[in-house]
Write a structure and sequence with these properties.
The complex is a heterodimer of chains A (117) and B (408). With 117 residues, chain A is of the alpha+beta class. Chain A has one domain (2-112): Dimeric alpha+beta barrel (Alpha-Beta Plaits, 2-Layer Sandwich), CATH 3.30.70.1060. Chain A contains 2 helices and 6 strands, in the order E-H-E-E-E-E-H-E. Chain A has helices at 21-40, 93-100; strands at residues 2-9, 45-51, 59-64, 67-72, 84-89, 107-112. Chain A is flat and about 50 Å long. Chain A starts with a strand and ends in a 5-residue tail after the last strand. Chain B is an all-alpha fold. Among the domains of chain B are: 1-98; 100-224, no CATH class; 362-408, no CATH class. Chain B has 19 helices and 2 strands. Chain B has helices at 2-23, 26-47, 53-76, 79-96, 100-114, 121-131, 137-143, 148-165, 177-196, 207-223, 228-241, 266-276, 287-304, 313-326, 330-344, 346-353, 363-374, 378-391, 395-406, and strands spanning 248-249, 252-253. A two-stranded antiparallel sheet of chain B has the order 1-2. In chain B, helix 1 (2-23) packs across helix 4 (79-96), helix 6 crosses helix 8 (148-165) and helix 9 runs parallel beside helix 11. The radius of gyration of chain B is 25 Å and the shape is elongated. The termini of chain B are far apart. Classes of the chains: A alpha+beta (117), B mainly alpha (408). Chains A and B meet through helix 2 of A and loops of B.
Chain lengths: 117, 408
């Protein structure tokens, strides 16, 4: 299965800009450890993964009655703090949950990608 | 037909687990097995019960499943390809089915899948009763007091979620297995509580629900014999369940102190006391296992006291103090206040109740009312009973509270 892993919130962690450079470096090692753990695991592959720019750079499209309007900012407050995402191939939810324990304890939403077959 | 009911009761989990291991089609397995049971109910009375009833059901269900898969594949026009694939898998798993340990693993996989933490506790309970114990959907609906179509939809939704979210039919890594078994225990306890203390409705107690929850724990404990959370939970359930015939008289609630102790099921109590002596309970425990152990020891103090007056309230208060260190839940504080009142007097009990509130619960007000009545403060007691009656949603308990208030 493919999962979209959305890092939707900081949870109990400080916001990224409040980290000292050394703290930021420590967090980065956890992301590297996650990549390594995924590489080492049979049937698991990170298909894509990026950090996202802050909500002030997001643009939201809404189409109502055939008219599309653009607004500044994220779709909803819930995803305002979304910091990044992965697209991961994993055999099942448990394998993915086990690997995600390597990442910093962000709030994370897991959405399976729809299998067209 | 009794033989059929027995084999369904005893073998259901194994049959579901084997079919799932073989076909991985949660959406088809239960229907196929249901069809097999239905076919058995038609043919066994005339043809006689087969020598291997579970094997008969397995073969019939497997045939049903293969038919369904073939139909699906015809629709996709890929028939030859699939047949070879399915038949090859059928061959490999039939050898697997002969090996005892592999089958036991399959049942554990089934239990862990049904009580996965990614499912809501209500869905997990219903699904466990259906797939692990084979309780018919109509009965589960009755046990949880919802209409049958609602329960059927809930079970279907849960099965779709398992497939959609990728919840595996697998035993997880050893580092997370104890936590997963905690979730299984919580799932069973939720089902037990639905029977032991129904929050709403006309019955004070639905012993059948509690009995099914106990059966679920026994099945899992059979697979993981020393798992502390399950051992302690079974002890706790048995101790509470042992009082089922004494808790209600003529449709009225009977308080623990007033219960006829000869009507307690002392075989249940004895089994629970034996379980509490299990060596694994002395080892390191997860917080929820520790909480079950302490609750069970408290229940055992009550169950083994020769009479209400002989209850060792001092020991019970000590156990509640430990329990509050593990889980500072308001219901544990409430129960501790009751024990303090018995051990050290009404004033100490009222002091222990100070500031305690449980949202949507009548119990703190009911306890305060009782203690105020004992201390002779009739006006304050009546006000507290009014508050409790207004908040109570169980018909039998409300009648009990009204009776107490009117007797002031």
């Amino acid at each position: 299965m493919k999962y979209l892993v959305l890092l939707v919130g900081d949870g109990e962690l400080k916001p990224w800009p409040d980290h000292t450079p050394q703290e930021q470096a420590e967090v980065m090692t956890r992301f590297e450890a996650f990549s390594a753990a995924c590489r080492a695991r049979d049937g698991v592959e990170i298909l894509a993964g990026e950090a996202l720019a802050g909500p002030e750079h997001a643009t939201t499209l809404r189409t109502r009655g055939g008219t599309t309007t653009l607004t500044e900012g994220p779709y909803a407050e819930a995803i305002e703090a979304m910091g990044g995402f992965y697209l991961v191939e994993a055999p099942d939810l448990d394998v993915l949950l086990e690997l995600l324990r390597v990442l910093p304890p962000y709030d994370i939403q897991l959405s399976p990608v729809v299998d067209p077959y | 037909m009794e033989e059929l009911e027995d084999v369904v009761r005893e073998e259901w989990a194994r049959l579901v687990a084997l079919l799932l291991a073989q076909f991985r089609r949660l959406d088809l397995v239960e229907d196929a097995l249901g069809d097999a049971v239905e076919a058995a109910s038609r043919t066994w009375p005339d043809d006689g019960v087969p020598a291997n009833p579970a094997g008969w059901l397995m073969t019939a269900a497997r045939r049903r499943l293969l038919d369904r898969l073939r139909t699906e594949e015809v629709a996709r026009r890929k028939l030859p390809l699939l047949l070879t694939d399915v038949e090859r898998r059928a061959e490999t798993t039939s050898t697997m089915a002969d090996s005892g340990t592999l089958v036991e693993d399959d049942v554990l996989r089934l239990v862990l899948m049904c009580a996965h933490p990614a499912l809501s506790p209500e869905s997990a309970s219903a699904l466990s009763l259906r797939l692990v114990l084979g309780v018919p959907t109509s009965d589960i609906a009755r046990l949880f007091l919802v209409p049958e179509p609602t329960m059927a939809a809930r079970i279907t939704r849960a099965k779709k979620r398992i497939v959609g979210a990728g919840i595996p039919f697998a035993v997880p890594d050893a580092s997370v297995l104890p936590h997963r078994l905690d979730t299984v225990a919580q799932t069973a306890y939720l089902a037990f509580t639905a029977g032991y203390a129904p929050g709403t409705g006309p019955d004070l107690l639905r012993a059948a629900t509690s009995a099914e929850a106990i059966r679920l724990v026994r099945v899992v404990l059979g697979l993981r014999p020393d798992e502390p959370a399950l051992v302690a939970l079974l002890a706790l359930m048995l101790l509470q369940h042992s009082r089922r015939d004494a808790r209600v008289r003529d449709g009225h609630l009977v308080l623990l102190t007033d219960q006829d102790r000869t009507r307690w099921h002392h075989d249940d109590v004895a089994e629970a006391v034996r379980l509490l002596a299990t060596p694994s309970l002395a080892g390191p425990l997860t917080p929820s296992a520790a909480s079950y152990v302490l609750q069970a020891r408290i229940a055992a103090e009550h169950a083994t006291a020769p009479s209400a007056d002989d209850t060792r309230w001092d020991r019970i208060v000590g156990l509640y103090d430990l329990l509050l260190q593990v889980t500072a839940s308001p219901s544990a504080r409430l129960a501790r206040a009751v024990a303090v009142a018995e051990d050290q007097g009404t004033a100490a009990g009222l002091a222990a109740l100070e500031g305690l509130e449980i949202p949507d619960s009548h119990r703190p007000a009911a306890v305060r009312a009782e203690l105020l009545a004992r201390s002779g403060d009739v006006d304050a007691a009546r006000a507290a009973y009014d508050q409790a009656v207004a908040a109570c949603r169980n018909d039998v308990e409300r009648a009990f509270l009204v009776g107490k208030r009117d007797a002031l």
